[in-house]
Amino acid sequence: MKEIISGMSLLFLIQGVGGLINHLTNGGKSWFLVNYIDAFQGREIAIDILLIAIGGVIGLLSMKKSSPSKDGK
C-alpha cells in the first residue's frame, strides 16, 4: 500500500513541477494534464502549485505513517 501512495505522490509532484516549468517557459501543449482540462484554463500556474502541494503532503503523510514509533507500539 505504501508503494501505491508513494507512486501517487510522485505522480502529483511530476505533474505539478513539470507543468509549472512548462507554463512559466511558455511551453506548448504537452502531456501535463492541466493543459487538457478546460476548467483549469487561465489558472494553470495556480493548479500546478496546488498539485505540487498535494504531492508533497501525500508524500510526507506516507513517510510519517510508515516510520516506526519510538515507544515500540
Could you characterize the architecture of this molecule?
The structure is a single chain. Helix content is about 65%, strand content about 0%. The protein is mainly α.
Which helices and strands occur, and which strands form pairs?
Elements: H1 2-24, H2 44-66
Helix pairs in contact: 1-2
The SS-based structural class is: mainly alpha
* Mean of pLDDT: 87
For the record, give the distance between the C-alpha atoms at the N and C termini, rounded to a whole number. Answer: 20 Å
Assign a percent range to the helix content.
55-70%
Shape: elongated
**Rg from alpha-carbon coordinates:** 15 Å
Number of separate strands: 0
Low-confidence stretches: none
**SSE string, helix = H, strand = E?**
HH
- The DSSP helix count reads 2
Strand proportion, as a percent range, falls in under 5%
Biggest sheet descriptor: none
- The quaternary organization reads as single chain
Can you give keywords for this protein?
single chain, 73 residues, mainly alpha, 63% helix
Question: Quick summary of this structure?
Answer:
This protein has helices spanning 2-24, 44-66.
